């Protein structure tokens, strides 16, 4: 919020919406959907609960915007990692090493917001859990599409499922404190297992 955005009574009239979504993204990424309360959000963003509801509609709507921000930047899966690789092994290595760098970057939250954001939840949030599962399915399909450069459709689908599971595991292990060197051992095992 900018100092000149205050009313005569000293209360904020508006806030930086993009910054609010970025702040919410970091909170949700760190604690998951259910681990973040409205009080946590309003405190971090610096607005009252009625203002949050007026701006975003609901906590779930704010979460959706935070996810979109994450997916458009920090959490984007770059298809070029496979498309530009000279071989399947090199493509998989690039994909997994990029994943490790992302989930262990000291300037970010640990892990992947999509892999670990909503896995188990209260029944009231079942729609949100299905949305997250759909996003993970879309990531797996993106991987399968890239792998079809080297593999037939069936093997590409199976390999994509394996790689998605490995990437989700890397995310969870990063959240648990695994180092990049620890996670690199996983890369070596996966690449070694690609031999026909």
Structural notes for this entry:
This protein is mostly helical and 196 residues long. The chain starts with 16 loop residues before the first helix and ends with a helix. α6 runs antiparallel to α10 (180-192). Helices cover 65% and strands 0% of the residues. It folds into two domains: 8-70, Orthogonal Bundle (Arc Repressor Mutant, subunit A); 77-192, Tetracycline Repressor, domain 2. 31% of the residues are buried.
Task: List the SSEs and their pairings.
Layout: H1 17-31, H2 38-45, H3 49-56, H4 59-72, H5 80-83, H6 88-104, H7 113-116, H8 126-147, H9 153-175, H10 180-192
Helix pairs in contact: 1-2, 1-4, 6-9, 6-10, 8-9, 9-10
Task: Name some characteristics of this structure.
0% strand; mainly alpha; 2 domains; disordered N terminus; 196 residues; Tetracycline Repressor, domain 2
């Amino acid at each position: 919020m900018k100092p000149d955005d205050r009313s005569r009574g000293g209360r904020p009239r508006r806030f930086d919406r993009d910054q609010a979504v970025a702040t919410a993204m970091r909170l949700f990424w760190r604690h998951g959907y259910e681990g973040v309360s409205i009080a946590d959000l309003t405190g971090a963003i610096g607005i009252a609960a009625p203002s949050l509801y007026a701006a975003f509609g609901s906590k779930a709507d704010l979460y959706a915007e935070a996810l979109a921000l994450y997916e458009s930047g920090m959490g984007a899966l770059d298809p070029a990692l496979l498309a530009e690789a000279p071989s399947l092994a090199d493509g998989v290595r690039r994909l997994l090493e990029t994943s490790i760098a992302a989930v262990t970057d000291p300037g970010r939250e640990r892990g992947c917001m999509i892999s670990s954001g909503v896995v188990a939840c209260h029944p009231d949030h079942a729609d949100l859990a299905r949305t997250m599962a759909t996003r993970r399915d879309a990531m797996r399909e993106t991987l399968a599409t890239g792998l079809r450069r080297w593999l037939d459709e069936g093997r590409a689908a199976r390999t994509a499922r394996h790689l998605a599971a490995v990437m989700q595991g890397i995310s969870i292990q990063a959240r648990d404190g695994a180092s990049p060197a620890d996670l690199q051992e996983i890369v070596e095992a996966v690449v070694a297992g690609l031999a026909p």
